[in-house]
């Protein structure tokens, strides 16, 4: 009966053939779709589909594979709307596939200039869909609107200058009639921002600078002209609290990354959660996880928005597992710090004070000789997505246990060049560290279970109503065979016990999703050069 | 047509760029970058490691300033050598440092009788474990191109103190399974669920971790030291032979 209702809803969607704002707001009513980066505005990466569950998941098998004609890493989360799967191909192309068979309808190919300034590969984390349009950010720092039926370009606007190290790699987010787009370039000394564009015309509605200019609130946390190259990029898709009309987004590292000499002060609003009024882009609140960061611990994680009991009363919360190794709970109305607890080994802070500010240990800053600190430069987690299940009320994430050797070097700002101040070492040969999938109780930050991995994954997790958590092993930084594995697996969401796994044989650096196609629940995960989908026989 | 090509080649030669950043200060700046970005694979003194020995001044992908600039900038596709993202000035400084490194090494043949060394390689047991051009064993690294990969001093040390530098894939390992079965050999690969080994008894095996009683890996070499087992002359000859095992160079 439930299936029939879902099917009817899906048909209703087909008849509309339009992704309206109302559909996005009520994404939980259409579990057969995956309409935004995280599957809903709340950032849960949770599927309410339960056809695949812990009793039958062992029968899961490959449904279809779509191979991309690319050699670059796939970091995209596909979207699925009304039977069509939209996904970006690196560097900045888009394809539309039949979600049941994986057969392509159209491809948008972007011709790119020779000189592209991306720190870590010419990658793209996905598209946004609204109305009859598909939106993609490009590595040459444009935002492009495509016709969803043909891939034809509707508008193409420059967001920033690629020659000064700007690029767009994150998936845009639709809010009302706007496309919200973040920018990358934290290794090039950009001045970060978050933009809103009119869906129809491509005209910019607002821009929030993540680095305030002199005179603005927060500018007192900078010295001299450092703010002009202050960093604070916004390259991972945030969440949206419709009730409070707040866009909640994470910001990246200050520039230069590992040498903070030119930027004494807290360096607002880098490494922060920011909450913006969706209509004006005005800052409502912020919470800075790492003031004056010199370890490249971006806050580029998906904010997980949950309404829950907190110490006896209902409260609007944000759950955030940050790259620095702490799990945070914040009040979503004010940004007030409520809880912070390490979810992985860290050696840089003696805890957090009452306001959530880290109490730093001595001798943790990068030095010319190098300093060992946990977590390493890629953090205790990174940009790949966490998940929240309303059934278990647990927060799931991919965690790294690793140290890094942080060196400090000179950093000179030359437009379009790296502005970083040395490169720390990770994947240390004698102590490469390992990864794990962990379940955290958000009420107290306690670890409920872990599934230990030999390698450090670059992929996020998906929870489902089938009481499953899907995740990956992996690694791509060191392509030496011993550092790499590529299993995709399903765990029991309550116990962490392994239920199913398959070796997909390629770099995994993305996030799984679930949707319905051809009357079946599907699970999709990019690996190597392809998107693999799975269903029951 | 031929003449045209020759002329073009001559023009290209004339246009070859020489390093504009060649002062000792440049080399010192390049050394800093080298230490943080190159030494992990090529050794702190350029003696080689995961990557080739850089101390000879002769490079497989071209030895001109321009060729080195290109290799450092773009990397070498199909190998673990990545491109580096420095400014042109900084890349030139790295090239200046490479020249300084090259002055420490030598590309001329070491003393010794390579022909004699070749027969020692067989009679003293080296070929029991090391393969050269298809002949020899597989319990030690293939030495097809060892002469271009490692400097002479490194070769000498490896013969006399085999445990000084051992690649991780040659660390001796033993797995004992729950059923008591033991597998000795080298770990070729491993992941969350399995360990792949090259074993003496069964060749290539994949063993499931869930059945492990223990996995022991010693950061050591199974090679015996040849200290006292070779005369000084024999050692020199053997090294002279190993040095001849060079990779052919492209332009």
Q: Please state roughly what percent of the residues of chain B sit in beta strands, choosing from under 5%, 5-15%, 15-25%, 25-35%, 35-45% or over 45%.
A: 5-15%
Major protein interface: A-B, 21 and 16 residues
CATH C-level class of the largest domain in chain B is Mainly Alpha
Could you name the CATH topology of the largest domain in chain B?
A: Cytochrome Bc1 Complex, Chain D, domain 2
Distance from N terminus to C terminus of chain B (CA atoms, Å) equals: 22 Å
Strand order of the largest sheet of chain B: 4-3-2-1-5
- CATH evolutionary superfamily of the largest domain in chain B: Cytochrome c-like domain
Describe the oligomeric state of these chains in a short phrase: heterodimer
Keywords for this structure?
heterodimer; A: 537 residues; mainly beta; Methanol Dehydrogenase, Chain A; 5-stranded mixed beta sheet; 4-stranded antiparallel beta sheet; 2 helices; 4% helix; disordered N terminus; B: 251 residues; alpha+beta; Cytochrome Bc1 Complex, Chain D, domain 2; SH3 type barrels; 3 domains; 5-stranded antiparallel beta sheet; 5 strands; globular
Please outline what is shown here:
By secondary structure, chain A is mainly β.
What does this 3D model show about the protein?
- The complex is a heterodimer of chains A (537) and B (251).
- Chain A is mainly beta and 537 residues long.
- Chain A is 4% helix and 36% strand.
- In chain A, the strands form 10 sheets. In chain A, strands 1-31-32-33-34 form a 5-stranded mixed β-sheet, with no helix packed on it. Chain A has a 4-stranded antiparallel β-sheet with strand order 2-37-36-35, with no helix packed on it. A 4-stranded antiparallel β-sheet of chain A has the order 3-4-5-6, with no helix packed on it.
- The model of chain A is unreliable at 1-16 (pLDDT under 50).
- Chain B has 3 domains: 16-104, Cytochrome Bc1 Complex, Chain D, domain 2 (Orthogonal Bundle), CATH 1.10.760; 114-165 and 224-244, Cytochrome Bc1 Complex, Chain D, domain 2, CATH 1.10.760.10; 172-217, SH3 type barrels (Roll).
- In chain B, helix 8 crosses helix 9 (232-244).
- A 5-stranded antiparallel β-sheet of chain B has the order 4-3-2-1-5, with no helix packed on it.
- The chains are: A mainly beta (537), B alpha+beta (251).
- Chains A and B meet through loops of A and helix 2 and strand 2 of B.
């Amino acid at each position: 009966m439930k299936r029939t209702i879902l099917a009817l809803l899906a048909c209703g969607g087909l008849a509309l053939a339009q992704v309206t704002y109302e559909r996005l707001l009520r994404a939980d009513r259409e579990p057969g779709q995956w309409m935004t980066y995280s599957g809903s505005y709340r950032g849960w990466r949770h599927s309410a589909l339960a056809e695949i569950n812990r009793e039958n998941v062992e029968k899961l098998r490959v449904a279809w594979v779509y191979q991309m004609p690319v050699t670059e890493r796939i970091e995209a989360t596909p979207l699925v709307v009304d039977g069509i799967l939209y996904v970006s191909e690196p560097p900045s192309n888009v394809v539309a596939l039949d979600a049941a068979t994986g057969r392509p309808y159209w491809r948008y190919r972007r011709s790119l200039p020779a000189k592209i300034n991306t720190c870590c590969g010419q990658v793209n984390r996905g598209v946004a869909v609204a109305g009859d349009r598909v939106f993609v950010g490009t590595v040459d720092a444009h935002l492009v609107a495509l016709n969803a039926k043909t891939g034809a370009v509707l508008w193409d606007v420059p967001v920033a200058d690629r020659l000064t190290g700007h690029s767009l790699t994150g998936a845009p987010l639709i809010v009302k009639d706007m496309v919200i787009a973040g920018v990358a370039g934290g290794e090039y000394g950009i001045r970060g921002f978050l933009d809103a564009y009119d869906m129809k015309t491509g005209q910019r509605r607002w821009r929030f600078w993540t680095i305030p200019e002199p005179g603005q609130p927060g500018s007192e946390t900078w010295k001299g002209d450092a703010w002009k190259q202050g960093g604070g990029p916004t390259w991972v898709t945030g969440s949206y609290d419709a009730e409070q009309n707040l866009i909640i987004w994470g910001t990246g590292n200050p520039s230069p990354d590992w040498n903070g000499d030119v930027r004494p002060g807290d360096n607002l609003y880098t490494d922060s959660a920011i909450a913006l009024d969706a209509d004006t882009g005005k800052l409502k609140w912020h919470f800075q996880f790492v003031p004056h960061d010199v370890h490249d611990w971006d806050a580029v994680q998906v904010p997980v928005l949950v309404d829950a009991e907190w110490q006896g009363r209902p409260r609007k919360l944000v759950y955030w597992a940050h790259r620095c190794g702490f799990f945070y709970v914040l009040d979503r109305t004010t940004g007030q710090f409520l809880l912070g607890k390490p979810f992985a080994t860290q050696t840089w802070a003696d805890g957090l004070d009452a306001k959530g500010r880290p109490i730093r240990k001595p001798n943790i800053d990068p030095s010319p000789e190098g300093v060992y600190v946990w977590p390493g430069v890629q953090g205790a987690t990174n940009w790949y997505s966490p998940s929240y299940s309303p059934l278990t009320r647990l927060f799931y994430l991919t965690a790294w246990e690793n140290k890094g050797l942080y060196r400090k070097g000179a950093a000179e700002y030359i437009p379009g060049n790296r502005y970083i101040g040395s490169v720390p070492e990770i994947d240390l040969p004698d102590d490469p560290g390992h990864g794990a999938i962990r379940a955290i109780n958000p009420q107290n930050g306690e670890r409920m279970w872990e599934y230990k991995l030999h390698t450090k994954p670059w992929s996020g997790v998906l929870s489902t109503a089938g009481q499953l958590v899907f995740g990956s092993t992996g690694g791509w930084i060191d392509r030496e065979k011993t550092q790499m594995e590529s299993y995709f697996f399903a765990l029991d969401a309550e116990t962490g016990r392994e239920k199913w796994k398959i070796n997909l044989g390629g770099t995994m650096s993305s996030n799984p999703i679930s949707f319905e196609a051809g009357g079946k629940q599907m699970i999709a995960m990019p690996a190597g050069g392809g998107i693999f989908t799975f269903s029951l026989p | 047509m031929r003449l045209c090509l020759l002329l073009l080649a001559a023009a290209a030669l004339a246009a070859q760029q020489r390093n504009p950043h060649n002062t000792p200060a440049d080399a010192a700046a390049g050394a800093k970058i080298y230490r943080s970005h190159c030494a992990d694979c090529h050794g702190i003194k350029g003696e080689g490691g995961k990557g080739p020995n850089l101390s000879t001044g002769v490079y497989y992908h071209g030895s001109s300033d321009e060729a080195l600039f290109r290799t450092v900038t773009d990397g070498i596709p199909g190998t673990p050598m990545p491109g580096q993202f420095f400014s042109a000035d900084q890349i030139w400084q790295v090239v200046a440092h490479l020249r300084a490194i090259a002055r420490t090494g030598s590309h001329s043949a070491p003393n010794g009788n390579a022909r004699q060394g070749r027969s020692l390689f067989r009679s003293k047991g080296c070929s029991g474990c090391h393969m050269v051009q298809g002949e020899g064993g597989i319990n030690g690294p293939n030495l097809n191109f060892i002469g271009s990969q490692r400097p002479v001093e490194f070769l000498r040390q490896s013969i006399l103190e085999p445990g000084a530098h051992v690649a991780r894939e040659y660390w001796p390992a033993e797995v004992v399974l729950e059923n008591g079965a033991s597998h000795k050999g080298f770990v070729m690969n491993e992941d969350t669920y399995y360990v792949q080994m090259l074993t003496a008894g069964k060749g290539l095996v994949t063993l499931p971790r869930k059945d492990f009683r223990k996995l022991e890996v010693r950061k050591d070499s199974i090679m015996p030291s040849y200290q006292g087992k070779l005369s000084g002359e024999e050692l020199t000859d053997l090294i002279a032979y190993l040095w001849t095992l060079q990779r052919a160079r492209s332009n």
